[in-house]
Amino acid sequence: MICGLKEIRFAAILLHQPHHQGNMAFTGKYEFEGDENYEDFVKKIGLPSDKIEMGRNCKIVTEVVQNGNDFTWTQHFPGGHTTTNTFTIGKEADMETMGGKKFKATVKMEDGKIVADFPNYHHTAEICGGKLVETSTTSGVVYKRTSKRIA
């Protein structure tokens, strides 16, 4: 598997899961390490300027708990804000974006990646080299966020 191809997506609500045939679990705690195309992406999806500033180089900690196909995906933002999404692969679930927008989505597993369509973008998450790599794509703009495992 090659990291960083067009299939990786950022999501304000990060999603984690196992790799290839489920032999590589997403369970863990990950801290923001770096990103690419943040500003272009968040402007394209219409994030308000106050949230854009708040999210810039934000040390988000993502916690993923996986039990088979069931996931709890939590993002902890500085200042105490937390977003949690609970979902089962292949089943529709109530979700929330980092901007607080609620929506329904069916999260899938494709080639070891978690895949979900958010209201304004397509998101994938995978474990690559022990890191959580998320990619979000909208209107030709690709945002990539990498987080290192801390637990």
| Separate helix tally | 2
SSE order, one letter for each helix or strand: EHHEEEEEEEEEE
pLDDT < 50 runs, ≥5 residues: 1-24
Q: What percent of residues are in strands? A: over 45%
Distance between the termini: 23 Å
What is Rg? 14 Å
Question: What's the number of extended β-strand segments?
Answer: 11
The whole-number mean of residue pLDDT values reads: 82
Q: What is the 3D shape?
A: globular
Indicate the percent of residues in helices.
under 10%
Order of strands across the main sheet: 4-3-2-1-11-10-9-8-7
Largest sheet composition: 9 strands, antiparallel
Write down the oligomeric state. Answer: single chain
* SS-derived structural category: mainly beta
Can you put this structure into words, describing what you see?
There is one protein chain. It is globular, with a radius of gyration of 14 Å. The protein has helices at 38-44, 49-55; strands at 28-36, 61-67, 70-76, 82-88, 92-96, 102-106, 108-110, 113-117, 122-128, 131-138, 141-149. The chain has a 9-stranded antiparallel β-sheet with strand order 4-3-2-1-11-10-9-8-7. With 151 residues, the protein is mainly beta. The model is unreliable at 1-24 (pLDDT under 50).
